[in-house]
Amino acid sequence: MTTNQSARLFSRYAWAVVAWNLFVIVWGAAVRATGSGAGCGSHWPLCNGEVVPRAPEIATIIEFTHRITSGLALISVAVLVYLAWKWFPKGHLARRASLISLILILIEALLGAGLVLLEYVEQNKSLGRAAYLSAHLTNTLLLVGALVSTAWLGRHAAPKLKPIAAKWKWALASVIAAGVTGAIAALGDTVFPATSMADGMKAEFATDAHALLRLRLLHPVVAVLAGVFLLFTGLQVSRAGVSARSKAGGHAIVWLVVIQTVAGVVNVWLLAPVWMQLLHLFLANALWTILVLTTLEEHFTEH
User: Fold this and answer.
1) Separation of alpha carbons 250 and 176, rounded Å
2) What is the pTM assigned to this prediction?
């Protein structure tokens, strides 16, 4: 197999790993949104004390499926590291990115186990759960970013990245901030479901409102600020990007921000049904993926 052939094959496999992990992430959100986090009880890695649960309920099937798909995701990333070390020379950035991906998915697995063992599931309303989910969401985005970087770097023979400009660091940080507040808002929607928009707002502004309800108000503010910044960044790079790909990325960022904003409004209007929460999360990950790719394109040099 030639170097070009191995690079193409590696990149295709890496993008398949990205796609699979995005599926696992969305399915994990379904576990939380449907209240199925305790489907295997407080047992980990066993499910209700069994390797394979017998006569499982719906919640058990949802949670056990997430564990299986997460395990396959971990294996897929381990294979990615093996291929990077086999097909790329010492010092190639795809090697480093794949290793970071493996470290992050191991952390992801530990965080997932912690949710079960600490019983941060179902109707748990503690601030500890909110903080834990924030860390989990941050690690998830970093994992997706590392996997996307691995797939992108694998296309190039000797990639080299310049220091990332401040505006791109802010753009990446803004998506993480919006994602973290979004995770907290989604938790609030799960444990304090509203029967109407009026009732939801009344509960949030009540003098004795739970902290999760008050924190839920942060997300729209942070999301709007992040969206405005990303719109300006996307428009700027779409006009003056360093390459055709980065310009296309700028256009994609603009459109995804608009679509995600509409999805957020619809999510609130419909009182956060499960399917809309999952779509909202998927769009957030799509925006993050395009932002990471465009950042790489803007800071890439070939040697």
Assistant:
1) 18
2) 0.93
